[in-house]
Design a protein that fits this description.
This protein has 152 residues and is mostly helical. Helix content is 61%, strand content 0%.
Length: 152
């Protein structure tokens, strides 16, 4: 077979190019979303997942323990994490949120609202730029959306 040195005309640019462009736009989005979903299953604390550091049933750190018994577990957890955010940093609070949700799956439906509340509180304490630096994909990146909502 003899190879030619003259450039060949480009055939099939239309449909193939459109498909290529579509894949170039869609594929990164799919990869990011699948990666985010995979990362939410990771225990960020490094401690065993069967012994979460903070659970909604742990009321020892909450003030007014007589009032705590009447409150919903997600409200107790949110208040504990907000206190922890102010005393330590948002990264610690997010780790404990993930551990609490892993330990008590019934809290999963409240994870988004708690993470957003943490994001808003982080903006008040640390400012928008520093608060965003603590963001990680806990509860489908709700912390980051809380930061954005408080900043915007």
């Amino acid at each position: 077979m003899k190879h030619s040195t003259t450039p060949q005309t480009r055939r099939g640019r239309g449909p193939a190019r459109r498909i290529g462009r579509s894949l170039a736009l869609v594929l990164p989005v799919v990869l990011v979303l699948s990666g985010t979903l995979a990362v939410t299953r990771v225990d960020w604390s490094g401690s065993p997942s069967d012994s979460p550091v903070l659970t909604a049933a742990d009321t020892s750190a909450a003030k007014g323990s007589s009032r705590t018994a009447e409150r919903a577990p997600q409200d107790v957890l949110r208040d504990q994490l907000l206190t922890e955010l102010q005393e330590e940093d948002p990264g610690v609070a997010l780790t404990h949120l993930q551990q609490a949700v892993n330990g008590r799956p019934s809290l999963a439906r409240h994870c988004t609202s708690i993470a957003r509340a943490l994001g808003r509180a982080a903006v008040r304490v640390y400012g928008p730029t520093r608060a965003q630096s603590f963001a990680r994909p806990v509860c489908d990146t709700s912390f980051a959306s809380g930061v954005a909502a408080a900043h915007g």
